[in-house]
Amino acid sequence: MPSIKPIATTLLTGFLGSGKTTYLNQLLQTDIPARSIVLVNDFGRINIDASLIAYQDDDVIRLNNGCVCCTLGASMAEKLAEIGRMDPPPTALFMELSGVANAARVADMIRVAQRFELNEVRCFVDVSLAALHATDPRVNTVWAQQILSATHLVFNRLTPEQSLPTCLEQLVNQSVAQLRYDYAATVPPAPVVASPPRPVTTPTKGWHSVSFESNQVLAVEDVRAVLEAFTEVLYRAKGMLHTEAGRGWVVQWTKTQCVITPSARPVSQTQLVFIGMDEAGLEQLVQRLHSLQTESVA
Ligand SMILES: Nc1nc2c(ncn2[C@@H]2O[C@H](COP(=O)(O)OP(=O)(O)OP(=O)(O)O)[C@@H](O)[C@H]2O)c(=O)[nH]1
Q1: Does position 88 have pLDDT exceeding 60, yes or no?
Q2: Is the Cβ–Cβ distance between 45 and 208 less than 8 Å?
Q3: Tell me: the pLDDT tens digits for 254-297?
Q4: pTM to 2 decimals?
Q5: Long-range Cβ pairs for the range 131-138 (8 Å, 24+)
Q6: Is 255 a pocket residue for ligand 1 (Cβ < 6 Å)?
Q7: What is the mean pLDDT of residues 61-84?
Q8: Ligand 1 neighbour 259 (Cβ under 6 A)
Q9: Burial class of residue 234 in the structure, from the number of CB atoms within 10 Å of its CB (0-12 exposed, 13-18 middle, 19+ buried)
Q10: Ligand 1 atom with least separation from CA of 257
């Protein structure tokens, strides 16, 4: 019987907001092999990353999944088994992990899975937040573990004159990964609505994700103002905003800035996901957005 070629697998990892989806979008528009599978795992009930991905090629097969860090195990094994049974088999698998996923565990799962071959574990590192991530006891274990399990490390949000902070340099010294300094990517996208960069604050409780969905029309500035008011509890926010008829916006809120740009695709519903460590605070944020709707209806 002819031997079947294993499915070359690339894991995209890195902490919340580090640039995984941005890279995947670039890859999809340039050189992803035909009949590749793209599997996107997000943190939370709504898979926003899946809708932020600009699929261009009909040959790319999309699969969405829940959060790897929560569902790793049976559902991930099932998903891999499903991919492994495909006839004809896919050429390659690209799996974007959630920003708080344990990349080493997923990598081990691929290593032992029949029909798969782990090609690359590509970890994105936001250098501008390295010192914060290295010193925050709620974040540093998963952040360091993601870096140490990588075969390829991509450093972004740094300039050619800048060297890596010591905390990151120490991890890199323990790593055998290939290193890439992505200076070009430090030019942020031109925001249409953006807040001034803000000082970084550290969250205080455990990890949570809450979502907000609405079919009503919202004003971009109102939403931005609400997000800015919850800077203390938010660690990451992303999603789509439905404003006046036919207008859609992509919201990208990271620890340092809120950027809102027009969506390339029509948006018929607002879908936002908020990640942070203070569940009650996140719920208050959602309540505040709900009250915006009430105000606009009144
Ligand atoms: N300055 C700069 N911004 C970047 C870079 N890569 C991504 N961004 C921006 O950072 C924000 C988050 O990028 P994503 O690609 O969505 O990050 P992610 O790792 O997929 O985020 P999660 O899936 O939520 O963990 C977006 O506003 C991007 O435009 C980079 O290299 N430099």
Answers
A1: yes
A2: no
A3: 888 888 988 877 888 899 999 888 889 999 999 999 998 766 54
A4: 0.82
A5: 131/165, 131/167, 132/200, 132/202, 132/255, 133/15, 134/165, 134/167, 134/168, 135/167, 136/202, 138/203, 138/206, 138/207, 138/277
A6: no
A7: 62
A8: yes
A9: buried
A10: 27
